[in-house]
Design a protein that fits this description.
homodimer, 168 residues, Arc Repressor Mutant, subunit A, three-stranded antiparallel beta sheet, three-stranded mixed beta sheet, 38% helix, 23% strand, DNA-binding
DNA sequence: ATAGTTGCAAATTCTTTGCAAGCCA
DNA sequence: TGGCTTGCAAAGAATTTGCAACTAT
């Protein structure tokens, strides 16, 4: 294995784009301009985001490619999850996405004040997970650990107006 | 301390009702029949539930007390969380509740097939949590660990019709 | 009497779907 | 060409809100 990409810790054999194309082909789906635009935008930075954020980014950045409609964004996000490129989590009753492909397994600290997510790694969590699952005869596909509280910055500032539900 | 209640492991000084009443009084709120009915129903069994489940239970069980409207159920669930009687979690983009008062800290296994939640206890998780938080200068208020996968029962049955989003 | 509550209806927010027109293989 | 896609408008699902009537204190 010679050509590998290191997006941030994990070596992978293909670019997200190549992998998405492979996924699409394997499902008899098509490689459209919209899907390309979305994939590109999604992997242009590592922050967590939701459908609305992404839609706004696509609209704002007068991408030469042009805009993408809301339904298409939702549909494509689902495909990116199925393709193993993104991970989805439910936060405050809405879907928040993060890079999965090319990034190592990690968990999160969630500030209730500013709503930001901070990542951290711990393989202890995975081993606890596997032990519990073994005892319970449960076939694990993954886990989600979110530590909630107040981040350092928010503790300093007395009462920051807390960015309501933005998380980018 | 003599009169204590053991709902399932943790000793507490008051019944959920007494505690809720205290909470309400401390906020200048009133002890109404609706709030009483809801509290009673919520603590009549230990399963996880969402607003819709609760509403259905209240309607079904021809409670002599009478029905409670949807908005009131939503409003009261929020109060029960504020009062420390319930814990809320976001699952599949909707709010799921579980007993908090009188029950020990625990985490969950979530079957993606039947959507059921199974509890397990592990204080290792809490210690990992505290260590991470200390390093990151983060003030912890709690955590949520959900292990996802397929439960034993679902692995046996080939393709159980998976109870869609029910979790009671 | 007074201020907090309730229920109804309507509004919101996030996400999904039906379908005709459009585009990729 | 044929079938997958897209965008629009509308539908859905979960939750919240305005407000007049009601009730606990």
């Amino acid at each position: 294995m010679e050509d590998t990409f290191s997006l941030s810790g994990v070596k992978v054999a293909m670019t997200p784009m190549a992998r998405f194309e492979e996924f699409l082909r394997s499902r008899g789906k098509r490689i459209t301009q919209q899907r390309r635009t979305i994939l590109e935008q999604v992997f242009s930075h590592h922050e967590h985001f939701d459908a609305e954020n992404l839609l706004a980014e696509l609209a704002h950045e007068g991408k030469a490619n042009g805009k993408v409609s809301r339904p298409t964004v939702y549909r494509t996000l689902g495909e990116l999850v199925d393709a193993g490129l993104l991970r989805k989590m439910s936060l405050n009753n809405r879907s928040v996405y993060e890079h999965d492909y090319g990034y190592p397994q990690h968990d999160h600290l969630h500030c209730e004040k500013c709503n930001q997510l901070f990542e951290f790694q711990s393989n202890e969590v995975s081993s606890i997970r596997d032990n519990v699952a073994r005892q319970r005869n449960f076939r694990v596909t993954g886990h989600r650990l979110i530590i909630t509280g107040i981040c350092g910055d928010c503790m300093k500032s007395k009462s920051p107006p807390s960015r309501r539900l933005e998380m980018v």
